[in-house]
């Protein structure tokens, strides 16, 4: 995924499905310098992890 698209998703009020390694995730924030995004799994778990923006897929 491109950084600009991640920014659009973050600023959107729509529920846009994004996946990381086949799992549906919420994007919490981005680090443009490192091209990384902080995400957490959709659902009850709030564990956050940093992943490469290029590994995110919009569904």
TrEMBL record:
It is found in: Spore core. Induction: Expressed only in the forespore compartment of sporulating cells. Keywords: Sporulation. One of its GO terms (biological process) is sporulation resulting in formation of a cellular spore. GO terms for cellular component: endospore-forming forespore. It comes from the Bacteria. Its main location: other. The keyword Magnesium does not apply. Belongs to the SspH family. NCBIfam families: SASP_H. This is Small, acid-soluble spore protein H. The gene is sspH.
